Amino acid sequence: MSLTVAIIGRPNVGKSTLFNRLVGKKLALVDDTPGVTRDWRAAPARLAGIDLTVIDTAGLEEAFDDSLEARMRRQTERAIEEADVALLLIDARAGVTPLDQHFATWLRKGKTPVILLANKCEGRAGAPGLYEAFELGLGEPVPISAEHGEGLAELVEALLPYVPPEETQPDADQEAEAGTDPEAREDGRPEPVRPLQLAIVGRPNVGKSTLLNSLVGEERVLTGPEAGMTRDAITVEWTYRDRPIRLVDTAGMRRKSRVDDKLEKLAVADALRVIRLAQVVVLVVDAEAILDHQDLTIARMVLDEGRALVIAVNKWDTVTDRAGTLKQIDDKLQSQLAQVRGIPVVTLSALRRQKLDALLDAVLDIYEIWNRRVSTSDLNRWLAGMTEAHPPPAVEGRRIKIRYMTQVKARPPTFALWVSKPLDLPETYIRYLVNGLRESLDLPGVPIRMLTRKGKNPYAEE
């Protein structure tokens, strides 16, 4: 059983730095600017044999209206409610501030146990603040340095009283001796289904966070009229029709020439990382600005990475000329993304929770196509028909011969052609084969990669 710990504190005390240190990855954006983190995010960690779920939260602010700061505070309160232990982080070099005292008083009234951490205690500069921390009334502070990794052993000792007892489960060696190796699954149990990695991307303020909240049925991430609200890529574990899905909300991606702010550059880089790790990407576009230049740039980026793509046209309830808008979408896809025909397009309203099932069904369908494999015999029968209908061109008086074809991998579907002169096979002929492959063997909407190889048929008998 995992111990859930929430890292809390006022802005710019090092919460995200500690989060990255505990999870062992640079998942959270870190910058000297206060208020970088806005949504809370969770990630698994293991510290000295203790399994943890670590939650990074926004900086606590004394705001109780409908402002962005107040919404961030409410998100942090929810994270504290879900945690087994709260880690209150203070900046030892800055000393105890009135805001630290205010929130320490507030935490003492709550039900969640609190461990006080004095950050930035490397060297002697943090010593006065460490001693001041005793006056917060939360017990002995644990001196740490999140940036340098100091004090983690003391943090483990402070966490041990809250670690739940181990469940009585046989370990891997015991299962292997009993003939039930969890890797082999000889006991007949089904293999665990891995979550589908689903990323939500798009321009700022098109409704990405609203879509995630509507899908999971709760206010998991901040939403509002302010553009660029999401900065960190927020991951949410979720299940749809018994299928585990890992949803990731990302920051809005503007044109590169318009991105000047350092934090926005970091947020966009994080969004690009999410795209590379995703399996299916939902590109959210605004129904009032259909597939503009930046939308198409993001779509090409997703396809170039080999990810499966679904286009979600949000705010569809505001569209009056729906037939004309659909025709406009189809024309742009045909002209601008002709290399991948059949990309699924779903019209919906994230705010009104309309047609969300249609979106998820399209995601599952395109994921199945993205994973599809075609038998070698079917491929070569198809290839014979294609080359007979339109033979490869001749080079220097000799016709190029395509001897053989096989699928070398899925995700995305990737095929290899054994060609007599691979460097001379025109790109137009490869596109002819890809388009025919997509239509004849039912591979719509996913990127298809075609590789050329020189040599004899590796499967031919000697």
TrEMBL record:
> Does the record's keyword annotation contain GTP-binding?
yes
- Per the record, where are the segments of Basic and acidic residues compositional bias? 182-192
Q: Which residues bind GTP 2?
A: 202-209, 249-253, 314-317
**Which residues are GTP 1-binding?**
9-16, 56-60, 119-122
User: InterPro entries, per this entry?
Assistant: G_ENGA, GTP-bd, GTPase_Der, KH_dom-like, KH_dom-like_a/b, P-loop_NTPase, Small_GTP-bd
Query: Which superkingdom, per the lineage?
Result: Bacteria
Q: Which Pfam families match?
A: KH_dom-like, MMR_HSR1
- The biased composition feature labelled Acidic residues covers 168-180
Q: Which UniProt keywords apply?
A: GTP-binding, Nucleotide-binding, Repeat, Ribosome biogenesis
Please state every residue range assigned to the domain named EngA-type G: 3-167, 196-371
Q: Where is this region: Disordered?
A: 165-192
Purpose of the protein:
GTPase that plays an essential role in the late steps of ribosome biogenesis.
Quaternary structure, from the entry: Associates with the 50S ribosomal subunit.
Q: Which family does it belong to?
A: Belongs to the TRAFAC class TrmE-Era-EngA-EngB-Septin-like GTPase superfamily. EngA (Der) GTPase family.
Q: Which NCBIfam families match?
A: GTPase_EngA, small_GTP
**Can you name this protein?**
GTPase Der
